C-alpha cells in the first residue's frame, strides 16, 4: 500500500485543456499530500479553457522530452481533457512514449473527457474498459476498448470519467487506486 505523500503524479497537458479537469483532480491529489508535476510540449505556461472561453495560464514543470527520459520518476499520470488539448497532445511522440511507459510499468493512469484520445494514439487501450466524453465512444471501440457510459470506471489501474461533473467521483477513485498500489 502506497504512502500518498511519497507519490508524484505527472499531469500531461498542452494549451486548450479543460481547466477544471486539471485543477479539480490536482487539488484533490495535493490535499492528500501527493506531489503533482505539470508536463507539456514546451516550458512556456499553458492556457486552460472554461469550455470554449480562455481560462488561466499555468506554469509548466517539465517538457514531454524531459519526462519521457525518466518515466520512473512518476507514480501515476493524470490526463485532463479539452478538445483542443486532446487533439494536439496525441500528436506528441514523447507524450505517447510516457503513456506507454506508465502502462508497461503497471502504474495508474487517470483520464477524463477527451483525454482518452492520447491513450488511443499511444496504443494502450485494446481490451480495456473505460468511459469518456460520449463523442469518443466510436474512436475507443475502434481502438479495441469497451466503452461504457458511467460516472467513473476503474479497470485495474486505469481510471476514467466522462466530464467535469464527474470530477468528485473521478478524484476519489484515482486516490483509492493510488492507495492500493
UniProtKB/TrEMBL annotation:
GO terms for biological process: proteolysis. It holds the Pfam family DJ-1_PfpI. Keywords: Glycosidase, Hydrolase, Protease. InterPro entries: C56_PfpI-like, Class_I_gatase-like, DJ-1/PfpI. Residues 9-175 form the DJ-1/PfpI domain. One of its GO terms (molecular function) is peptidase activity. Its EC number is 3.2.-.-. PROSITE patterns: PEPTIDASE_C56_PFPI. The keyword Hydrolase applies. Belongs to the peptidase C56 family. This is Cysteine protease YraA. It comes from Achromobacter insolitus. The gene is yraA.
